[in-house]
Amino acid sequence: MTRQMTGAKMVVQALREQGVEVVFGYPGGAVLPIYDEIFQQNDIRHILVRHEQGAIHAAEGYARATGKPGVVLVTSGPGATNVVTGIVDALMDSIPIVVLSGQVPTFMIGSDAFQEGDTVGITRPCTKMNWLVKETDKLAETIHQAFHVATAGRPGPVLVDIPKDVQFATGTYVEKPKARTDHYAPRVKGDIEAITRMVEMIETAERPVFYTGGGVINSGPAASQLLREFVEATGFPVTSTLMGLGAYPASGKSWLGMLGMHGTYQANWVMHDCDVMLNIGARFDDRITGRINAFSPGSKKVHVDIDPSSINKVIRADVPIIGDVGHVLEDALKIWKARGRKVNREALARWWKQIDEWRAVDCLAYKPSATSIRPQHAVARLEALTKGMDRYITTEVGQHQMWAAQYLGFEDPNRWMTSGGLGTMGYGLPASIGVQIAHPQALVINVAGEASWLMNMQEMGTAIQYRAPVKQFILNNERLGMVRQWQELLHGERYSHSWSEALPDFVKLAEAFGCKGIRCDNEADLDDAIREMIAYDGPVIFDCLVEKHENCFPMIPSGNAHNQMLLGEAETQGVIGASGAVLV
Amino acid sequence: MSPLQIKQGSSKHSAYDLRDPNAELIETHTLAVIVDNESGVLARVIGLFSARGYNIDSLTVAEVDHLGHRSRITVVTSGTPQVIIQIKAQLERMVIVHAVHDLTVEGPSVQRELALFKVRGKGEARIEALRLAEIFRANVVDSTLESFVFEMTGTPEKVDAFAELMRPLGLVEVARTGVAALARGA
Asked: Which pTM was predicted?
């Protein structure tokens, strides 16, 4: 049976067939036919944002909290260019996102028409794939292919640009099972020979470590389960990148905390001194490795990644395994069990003794403040008072993000959404809305800094409109904290443009939006204030006035090695050399 | 040059692979990239090279299979062994790319380039140009009383050599297609 329908109807039908429940978007001239179709149905919910960047970050939050692709609908020209930051963000963090953008009619393309932009040209380098659909007959199949590409292999953003005349014209709808998708089929099963070599290394390792990343989360909850089983069965220590938090529970006894530039003392020492490094779905990002030629000098490295281009990109892998984390872990576990579940117990006991000495340094300790609130304390109290709740955390970018990663404990995957690779300020508020739309009953908190938060604060309007009770927990130091920290360490304490002289009154701002505002400026009142935030049935803007010049530690200064961490203020004099200063 | 002075990495035709994957040695590789013939595909491939700072020494592209909707991009690139591996991995993961063949490592290959040379001259220089063209098996495809246009096919090295010889004889313009390459054998 061939089904004839307009392009606009096809869009909605294809989304329905793909199981899409929510679309984040903003209408405009070039997508009006699609919006007209959205108006005439009830299967797909449309969330109207206040700025297209908000739409794509909300879709990212939605995608990461559900494991399903996030869908964005925007108009041509400025609508499309406003989502570019989010597209790059999704590419860097491997988030499945499908962007549908309107375009001027095909006969006007190239004429500098009103709201015309070369959307496929602009987004070509920052999508996994993009399409300009010039015939209505190809529209449905292209959308199905777009969903396939976004979710298959290493997930990422895709974009389908749909000219307005293609939306109006009638064509044949192609159903999902009939869409041609076989040309893109990334390999998911790892090479058994390589996996066997990995198992051999596990059996004999004296100082092993699981170094896990976002790939474990992206592989699905089963991969996290397998990782947990593997870690428990071997008794190996485990650390994670920023993107992988929650794959292994923070309460687990093998947990070392996050690694990298602001990772824990024990995690970074373990990475430096290990003899077998098991990289499971991480990509040796520069925040992780520090100085490349001093990175874990004595270890043999196994690298499991679904993307072949991640292998040997930064760090040479002794045993590269290309495949999906879940599949590889399943095979590895099976082989390891079949070979008799061997590990080097004596050596492992010595390794843990050493690790316990590093843990005893207690690198995340901080002193309480009598005059204001230590930001670390604010996050630690947030953790204590929300522990065990059905909780999702998003963040903006900067010091608060690192403190959130250090002081919050994540017990499950898909509970933590932060902009890792791109470091997009303004990510957290819209992302929190996307998460809340996916999980209406859950407690969704955006741990924010006031500067990042202001970048997309217009989205509070979206939160109010859709009754998304997101909690905006703003650590307000009236500074661009991380910029200020680097200026202190690197630029002779010349604080060039790193503070805001005209901040809004956040409580009044909350009232202006029509939600609740809470301010807290001392540690004595903090717990009650946080409880009040949690208890309030609606969005809250929490203005937490914290210590203005607090620095984030531990810190591996740029250009240094894992065993050259700074633990506190006393160690910060002249720590970054000229070669480190050019790094970011 | 004695065999003992062979530099590592310079031995692409040797039976022994002497290349050290960690060496900071620049190698030149010819890649054949089979892609979907659709709009924007060349921009996608070139964009990858510019975005990641890879070199393009030569590039040709044309549809080679009309029914199968396939084009072949032949790209000559240079970089350290690690960079070359990375280029191939980055190309292979692109949705529009069907296959990447590294003709430099996959065995012997034939590499050819077509070039046109405009040479202006009179008298002895003009005769000398014609004589050299004959040696290089270049054809005269256009002639006036004061100029020739020569057409020549060959390896890039041969094209370079011919251009060098024509320069003092009045070479005014060169057009080259870039390298097209195929693996030898069946």
From this structure: 0.92
